[in-house]
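Hi D.,

Good news: the full-assembly prediction came through. Inputs first.
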Amino acid sequence: MSKNSKEAIAILGVTSSIARALAEEFARDGHPLVLAARDLEEAETIGADIRVRCGVETAALELDAAHFDTHEAFVEECLEACGNKLGGVVLCYGFMDAQVKAEADFVIARRTIDVNFTSAVSILERFAEYFTERRSGFIAGISSVAGDRGRQSNYIYGSAKAGLTTYLAGLRNRMFHHGVHVITIKPGFVDTKMTFGLPNLFLVASPEQAAKAMYRAIVKRKNTAYVPWFWRYIMLIIRHVPDWQFKKMKM
Amino acid sequence: MIPSVKQPLSGWGRFPSEDCIVYRPEKRRELDTIFEESELPHFIARGLGRSYGDTAINGGGGVISFLRLNRMLSFDDEEGVLECEAGVSLAEIVETFLPRGWFLPVTPGTKFVTVGGAIANDVHGKNHHRDGTFGAHVLDLTLLTPKGKVMTCSPKSHEDVFWATVGGIGLTGLILTARVRLQRVESAYLRVDYRRLSDIHATLSAIQETDADYQYSVAWVDCLARGKSLGRSVLMLGNHASPGELGSRKGVPFKVRAKHKPGVPFDFPGLVLNPLSIKAFNAAFYAMHPTSQGKIIDYDTYFYPLDSIHNWNRIYGKRGFTQYQATFPVGHEEGLIGLLERLSAASCASFLAVLKRFGPQGPGLLSYPFEGYTLTLDIPIRAGLLAFLSDCDKHVLKHGGRLYLAKDVNTHPDVFAAMYPRLAEFRTVRRKVDPNSRLSSRMARRLRLAKDDKA
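Then the structure:
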């Protein structure tokens, strides 16, 4: 297969460090890219970087996850940018502010839910339509281990991600019958802007390590991938602590 | 305001260490407001932290990490000109462009340095006698000054700021991007000749005889050898190899087998590196490198022998170490010999003492290299070392020599000023671009680089 015959991959929220590293993984494999972000200038800079390093074509598009009424047009633009040859989409963006702020200010709580959950429904349903018609392709969503169980320190973000996780599970079930694969990716702690300076983190992965694991999981058509892998077992334990005990803990 | 975290930072020598407020922007625009919005008195940019001393630490102030501002912006594959952000590492450049036939114009002994750091320290390599410093290959750069302006400077435009920035250890502004001209190479290998030399006089004359024929030249010196063997060395001379010289590899001239990379997982106890073990290492190295010709060596092994051991700075233990580098002008070889005598008498040297001849000085106001002989060695920190080094500093100054900002932790400001005659010019440029001293570092304050305010 020549480099140019590979299908394009759309990366939504490419300005996060994980997304940027993941985009580079696809580019190294010869996929052209559509890079979307709220900050178009940054998306273009990342596109330039990937072109120089990997020699694939990239297009940059503006996407504001919180503006639902722009999403339909965005998905059309996205398909146009790659000449209707989209092989997959990866939803990478997210929004997290301090839990205490989200408790005190509903605007922040609402934004947490809108960006992490509602927008995913709004955007991915449109992509699902396209892939259903083609009967191929993949949809990957980056959720979070925070969605596996509500904890006092992070439950507003966590519950939005739990919504995303359940949404992706349902979408996976539906799309399976159309030959489209849906993967839920649950990163643990990764050294990103979101976690920079947070206390009490452990087993922190670099964005490059996380992206490599995510890329492998997508290529291998996993259903749910914890990144790094051991988070599956950490969360298995955390999910199985009974509520009467869990509610007394401080985590 | 972008998030920050308070953490102790040191240079590669792990001495000294200070608590700093660290920022790590991921978007270019996050830098725009940093000077205005922050209440911190001053900032310094930091790359991969390979400067040995206190260049990129700033207790009581901010440190701006450029590691996530590492995007390549364009590449002209006719001219070999790369435009990139300051946080791009030399390792990334090699990885991206060596397979396409381009290599760094100048490289220090590690590839884990950023382009911003290479410019700010105006680093040199084994080819200084031929190709000058890194700054000589920078076409232009963009600088965010503390006034919030983005200034494009080059040897032709705002040249005073450009030459204050090249070697100016981050005190003129935040280097945002640069255009660097790479060199064409035909393979990822070097053709290396070794010469074993029995003393310092043989070493110096061999360097002089061979410099014209080799792009790369450096001598490894046994700093523990005394008396008649003082300054015995192995001179390593290299040129980029052509595919025809590669033998069985000539069909794949850019292919280098990936090496296993061991790490140093913990701080070695002080006992491991003792005079006996170091002496044994030095003697073994000398014995293992007889004079020989035409050895083909991959670029990684040749340029970056220590990069293959992650965290090698940990072998010097918790107390850390310093790298002492002194350059003596041509004609003052007795100064170099005197320094070698002091060092070998004090038995404070370790492995890795290197000697090379620099070519002519470049125009960077605080740029280090000038025509002469430069000696570099690692010394573990221990009681009384700093006083010993201060004596060495005076010896270096007496013989017209100078020390290197990228390594220094200890020089007295007056000694430094006497070594850098263009310091006053540097201060003048600084007053212009940073009148309120929003850029500073432990080094800047220690050496009074910003202004001569005898505190």
